[in-house]
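Lecture 7 notes: from sequence to structure.

We start with a single chain of 248 residues. Read the sequence below before looking at the structure.
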Amino acid sequence: MELLLAAIGLGIGALSGFFGIGGGTVLVPLLLLMGYEMKVAVGISIMQMVFSSIYGSYLNFRKGTLELGEGIFVGLGGFVGGYISGYITESIPDSVLQYTFIFFVLFALYRLLMAPEIHEDAQNKTLPKWLLFVIGIGIGIIAISIGVGGAIILIPLLSGFLHYPIKKAVSAGLFFVVFSSVAGFLGRLMHGELDIRSGLIIGVASLLGVYLGVWLKDKVHAKKHKGFIVGMYLFILAIMAYKMFQQG
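Now the structure, written as tokens:
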């Protein structure tokens, strides 16, 4: 079981580095298929995201693809929202969390497909700092409640509305996950909703995967990168549909 969790951590870490996500969008469905309950899977996912997002953001910053600036304000909002989510999930049924998860994957897929292709050197739009903070709170509450870091929602928003080049949006998305996942981890720790052993195995194993994912992201053309992200979202939807069909 430990080897399987480590292998999953390695793969999830690679996805985190390459796609700029915390990894929960793939990890939660996989854990559900392995028999974990939704709330336990969410807790393990959040723990793994702490590892992958901090290390991945460090690597992106060193490579110059992460611009802190506005990301700080969205991230601080995400920290607040991620912490609040711990009080919300206690009273929400697993089925509601699963349907919410699917809805936001569909939203992200739609925004990503509709987003125009932006050159890497293009000037992105900006928003007032207070609005960025509020957006971060909203994303943090929603994302951590369903076991994802928020990048799956933030990346399409940055690319589709603020005209971020896809690779910069990916780096900013992973940076946001640092704030939301740390807050979510603290909230789950206080409410006793964590399988710490499984989370540590997956989280530590994910570090090597993150390094490989970030390296690969910088080697792939932006257009192909976007295509891979779309494919990932479709794969996630297929896993969740299969899981819900089994439950039905």
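The mean pLDDT is 81. Keep this in mind for problem set 3.
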